[in-house]
Amino acid sequence: MSGQDFTAEGGHGAVPLEGVPAAKAGHGSEREWPLYEVFVRGKRGLNHVHVGSLHAADDEMALRHARDVYTRRNEGVSVWVVQARHVAASSPDEKDPMFAPSGDKVYRHPTFYSIPDDVPHM
């Protein structure tokens, strides 16, 4: 096995790094795999839920590792992985302007509409 570069960073065992591109300039001299965010849909749920993050060399490896790490007890029916750099998210500091209700749009409030008495469960 001489000549191959192995690492056990992350505690998941030695993984060959041959053929994996090195980190970009300015990001350190060690090789870095992209960070992936992992979402799992459980057997009882309809929505995928964020369960954690992991590093992988490519999408296929990320799916395999996500399956192994986050669905070990056979609790998932679907796994999504997405590179963290592709996730667009709001900041918690933007909470008030982002999620504050608009007072000038009365049609968004349920009190604006009249509901007939014979309509159940509204």
UniProtKB/TrEMBL annotation:
Recorded coiled-coil stretches: none
InterPro entries cross-referenced by the UniProt entry: PaaB, PaaB_sf
Annotated region (Disordered), positions in chain: 1-28
UniProt superkingdom: Bacteria
NCBIfam families: PA_CoA_Oxy2 (TIGR02157)
Protein name stated in the entry: 1,2-phenylacetyl-CoA epoxidase subunit B
Organism: Nocardioides furvisabuli
Upper lineage: Bacteria, Bacillati, Actinomycetota, Actinomycetes, Propionibacteriales
Gene name in the database record: paaB
